Amino acid sequence: MSAQKTNDGADKLKASVKEAIGKLVGDPKVEAEGKFEQNEFERERTSAQKLPKSGVKPKSTPES
What we know:
Radius of gyration: 18 Å
Shape: elongated
Largest sheet: none
Number of domains: 1
Order of helices and strands: HH
């Protein structure tokens, strides 16, 4: 497992714990921050998956 994947997993876990602590303590601000951070990690992960591989070039359209 690469160091980047390990860091991403750890950061996502921290965000999840932050949300849980916010729920447990009754602090909606901390809970919302945890949810926000989790959503950011998901957004980054899905956007990285949608990027084309470096060896793939977009199709060019013939010019008239």
